[in-house]
Amino acid sequence: MTLQQISTTRRAFLAGSGLVIGLALTPRLSAFAATKGVQAGGEDALTALNAFVKIGADDTVTVLSKHIEFGQGPFTGLATLVAEELDADWSQMRAVHSPADDKVYANLAFGLQGTGGSTSIGNSYEQLRKAGATARAMLVAAAAEEWGVPVGEITVEKGRIKHAASGKESGFGALTVKAATQTPPENPKLKDPSQFVLIGQELPKLDTIGKTNGTAIFTLDIATDDMLIAVVAHPDHFGASVKSFDDSEARKVKGVIDVKQVPQGVAVYADNTFAALKGRDSLKIEWDLSKAETRSSKALEADYAKNFAEKGLEATNNGDVQAAFSKDGVQTLEAELVFPFLAHAPMEPLDAVFMKAADGSLDIYTGAQFPGMDLATAAKIVGLDPSKVRVNTQLTGGSFGRKAQFGSPYMQEAAAVYAATDRTRPVKHMWTREDDIRGGYYRPMYAHKMRGAIDAEGRITAWDQVIVGQSIMGKADLDETSVEGASNLPYVIPNLRVTSHNVELAVPPLWWRSVGHTHTGFAVETFVDELLQKVGKDPVEGRLALLTNEPRHMGTLKKVAEMADWGSTVPDGRSRGVAVVRSFGTYVAQIVEISAGDDGAPRVHKVWCAVDCGVAINPNVIKAQMEGGIGYGLGAVLFDAVTLGEGGKIVQSNFHDYRSLRINEMPAVDVAIIASTEKPTGVGEPGVPPIGPAVANAWRRLTGSPVRRLPIVNVVTS
Amino acid sequence: MVTFTLNGKERSFDGDPDTPLLWVIRDFEKLTGTKYGCGVAQCGACTVHLDGMTRRSCITPISTVDGSEVITIEGIDGPEAKAVQAAWVAIDVPQCGYCQSGQIMSAVALLQVTPKPNDADIDGAMAGNLCRCATYHRIRQAIHNAADAMEG
C-alpha cells in the first residue's frame, strides 16, 4: 500500500461515521420479517462510533462488514478484529454488510470495495483492529468524562468498562451516545499479538444459527406481496442474440404479467416464480448465431494446440532453457495438459431485487461482490443518479468468484429487466440453475505444454512451460493470472521458461476459486512429481530438496508428511500423492490416500492438509475453508467440465451433468495450521489448488497412467 | 383446490395444480427457509418432510400434496431436530448456508428412522443433498454427534 493510499483511507475512515447513519441496511419487507436476527444486528437504536462499528443501547456491537459473507467467514473474522481491540465480549458481537461505498469501504488491496483474491482478512487486519481501538478509546473518554476520573485509570475487559478506585462500572451501551461525541484518536495503539485474547480462538461463527433454522435471509428470499418475478430466456450459444420471438403462448400462462426483450434475451414477468418459469418455457425464440462461438470444445482444443509452436508472451526466462535441453546425456519429459471450462455453480443462482422508494430512489438487494461497481452499473441502466441508488448486500449462497465481475454483466441484465418495467412494482430477477451452468463467465479452458530436462546426474536442469488460454483480465499482453504459480515456480531449477498465449473466444471468462492456480497448480505439481519419479526421488524429499529458497513451502510440506506418517506402509490397493501450492500468500500442502473405486475412477479416502496463513484469526474458520476448498476442488477435478458440442452449443445444463462432489465422495480431512506471527493471509481459495495434483499424483503412482486432461472421470471411464 | 397442513396449520391452494410444492411454500406461504437450487431434484436444497418422509419439493406438484402433512425447516421439532440443530451449531457446519435447511431436513429424517447411523447410513441418506461449500466433513460429524447426544 502506498502512503497516498494510506492517507486516503484514513480520511475515508473518519468521514465514514457520518455516512452510515440513516442508510437502510436491511430490506423493508411487507410480507415477513427478514430483518430480524444476525443481519440486522439488533433492533435497538445503534450509535456509530466510526464507519465500521456501531454500538446499541443493549450493549451489542455491530460490525459493518465491507466484505460479503458468502461462506468464507468475513463476518466472524472482521468482528473478531474489532472485538479484540475493543475488548468486547464475543457474545455481544454482531455483523452486517456495510453499505456500498468504494471509498469508505474499499478493499485496501483493490482500491475499491470488493471481496476476492482471499484478501478479506489480510487487508482488514490493521484497519478493523484500528476501528475497534478507536471505538474503545472513545468509550473510555466518555467514561472518564461521565465519572470525572482520569482516562488512564479506566480498564476495559469483556465488554465492561471499569474504574477500580471508585468502583464505577458500565457496559458499552450506556456510554455510547456520549462516546460518539468524543474526538477519535488519530493513531490508537494496537495490541501486540502476544496480548491477543480473541484472535486465535475458535470463536463461534456469527452467522451459524440463522443458517440452521431457516431464518437467514438471502436475496432470493426477499419478497413483497406485489413483487414481480422475472426470468430471462438466454441463448444456448455464446455470442448469440434474439432474432425474433413469439410470446403468444407465454402470455396465456396464468400469472404471467408481461414479456419484454432485453439485451440479454427475452424476459418474462409474473406474479409468482412457477408462472414465470412456465411462461419462459412457452416462448418461441429464433436466435441469431451470426456472431456466436460455433467451435466445439474439441475444435478449440485443436486451435489451442497450434499456439504451442508459436512464440508466446514471456512470463519468465531464467538461464538458457534451449541450451539445457541440448546438452549431452539429457533425458527429457514432455506432457500436454488440457483443462476444461468450469462453472462456479454456487448453490444460490444469481439474483437481485429492485424496489423503488417513495422518494423515487432505488434499493437493490443482491449478493454484491463488487458493490460499488454493481451500483454504478445499475444506476446507469435505470437512468438514476448513483446517489439515488442503494446496493444492499445480502447473505449469499456461495460465489467462488462468480459474483465478482468487472463491468457487472449480471447486474446489467438484472437492471435491464427492471428498467423495462413501469417500475411501479418491485422486481425480483433470478437465474435458474440452467442459466447458471450455461451462463458463461467460466474458469477458462487452458492447454499447457510442459518440457523438463534431467541431466546425466539425475538433476532437473530445465523447465519449459507454455500456457494457452483466455486472458481473464482481458489483456492483449501478458496476463499474470494465466501464469501465476508457474512463472514464480518455487522449485530451484536453473533454466526456467514460462510463456503464454492469449486466445479470443466468445465464451466470457472469469476467475474461479483460486484463479490461475486452478490449472498452474495442477500442471506444476503433477509435472514436478513425474520428473521426481523419473529420477527415482521421493515426492516429499525430492520437493524439499528443490525448495531451498522457500521456508514456508518446506514448513507445510514437512508438517503434512509428519501428519500422514509419510513413508509408512499404505494398505493394499491404495496409493498416496502429495502437492504443495502457494496461492494468495498462503501456503498449503496436502497428501491424499486413494484407491480405484468400483466405477474405475479414483476414490479419495483421506486428505491431510497443512496450511500456513500467517497469524490464525480463527482456526476453526481456517480449517473449514481447507475442508471446503478440498471438496470444491476435488469435485471439479474428478467430474466437472462445461463443454461446447458440435456448432458450439453448450452441452451441460444442471447438476445431473455438471456433477458436484457428494457426501459419499468426500474424504476425511485432517487440517493442521502452522503457528506463525506473519501478517495474516487469506484462506478462501488456497485450499483448492493442491487437491487436484495430489490426487493425480496418487493415481499415476497407483495405475501408471498420468492424468493429462480433466476431469479425471472422462479419461478413466471413456 | 388443494388442502394440506403446513407445519401443523391447515392451508389451501387454488392456483395452477402443477405448481411445485417448493414455490407454494416460498411464494404463497412466504416461508423461505426451503431453498431453490436446481429445480430437478438433483441438489436437495428444497427438501421438506411430506407425511414424515423426505421429499424434494421442487418436483412435487401441489396437486399430489392434497390431504398431506408438510413440515419445513421452520416447523421442524422433536428430539431429533433439536439434536441435529444443536450439533450443527456446536461445530459451525454452515458456510454459505444456502443448502443447510435441506441438509438438516434430511439429517433429521435419517435419525428418526436410524437413531445410530453409521457412515454408510449417512451416505445413503445424505447423498442427495449437495453442498457446493463442501461442508460434508462436518455434516457427517454433526450427525454422529447428534446421535450420540440423543443416546445420552
TrEMBL record, chain A:
Taxonomy, superkingdom: Bacteria
Gene3D superfamilies the UniProt entry points to: Aldehyde oxidase/xanthine dehydrogenase, a/b hammerhead, Aldehyde oxidase/xanthine dehydrogenase, molybdopterin binding domain
Coiled coil: none
Keyword field: Oxidoreductase
EC number: 1.3.99.16
One Pfam family of this chain: MoCoBD_2
MF-aspect GO terms: isoquinoline 1-oxidoreductase activity
Keyword field contains Cell cycle: no
Domain Aldehyde oxidase/xanthine dehydrogenase a/b hammerhead: 213-291
UniProt xrefs under PANTHER family: ALDEHYDE DEHYDROGENASE
Protein name listed in UniProt: Isoquinoline 1-oxidoreductase beta subunit
Gene source species: Rhizobium herbae
TrEMBL record, chain B:
InterPro entries found in the cross-reference section: 2Fe-2S-bd, 2Fe-2S-bd_dom_sf, 2Fe-2S_ferredoxin-like_sf, 2Fe-2S_ferredoxin-type, 2Fe2S_fd_BS, Beta-grasp_dom_sf, Diverse_Oxidoreductases
EC numbers: 1.3.99.16
Alphabetical keyword list: 2Fe-2S, Iron, Iron-sulfur, Metal-binding, Oxidoreductase
EC primary class: oxidoreductase
SUPFAM superfamilies: 2Fe-2S ferredoxin-like, CO dehydrogenase ISP C-domain like
GO function terms (MF aspect): isoquinoline 1-oxidoreductase activity
Claim: Iron-sulfur is one of the keywords in the record: yes
2Fe-2S ferredoxin-type domain segment(s): 1-76
Name of the protein in question: Isoquinoline 1-oxidoreductase alpha subunit
Organism of derivation: Rhizobium herbae
